[in-house]
Amino acid sequence: MATTVREIMTPNPVTLQASSTVAQAAEAMKQHDVGDVLVLKKGSLCGIVTDRDIVVRDVAEHKDPEKTKLGDICSSELTTASVDDSIDSVVKRMREKALRRMPVTEGGKPVGIVSIGDLALERDQRSALADISAAPPSH
Q1: 48 to each of 42, 45, 56, 94, 139, how far by Cα in Å?
Q2: What is the bridge-based pairing of β-strands 36-41 and 44-50?
Q3: Architecture of the domain delimited by 5-134
């Protein structure tokens, strides 16, 4: 059984600059088949944008995704994990803050992302969430 985040995280997260548009984030999510993009400002992690954020903070607000910048809609109060954090400590933080995804950093740079699906696959492969997380994406 894995003990550190490094062992279960999804490596090489999709990143875009805070000055990138919401439309560019949506295109990147489609291209990489992911539901989130980590947002960078001057090379440092400054936020995360999810597919839900795009819908709630841009589309539902009748903003123009070709003009809205990621820095304007991203969640910027981030809780991050280190690659060497224990899975138990990450589970505890995700539960306390009701997070579904947590960026993983090493040396201050984003290197991965850990999701509740990753944790479900690691901790209980027979759970419904693990089954859903392991299933191929529907297109």
Answers
A1: 15, 8, 14, 15, 23
A2: antiparallel
A3: Roll (3.10)
- The pTM score is 0.86
Domain ranges of the chain: 5-134
Query: For residues 71 and 47, is the Cβ–Cβ distance under 8 A?
Result: yes
Q: pLDDT tens-digit profile of 112-138?
A: 999 988 887 676 554 434 343 444 544
Pick 132 or 15 by higher pLDDT. 15
Exposure letters 32-56 (e unless 16+ CB within 10 A, then b)? eebbbbbbbeeeebbbbbbeebbee
Structure tokens at 48: 């995360």
Q: CB-based contacts of 22: which residues, under 8 Å, 6+ apart? A: 49, 54, 58, 63, 65, 66, 68, 69, 70, 73
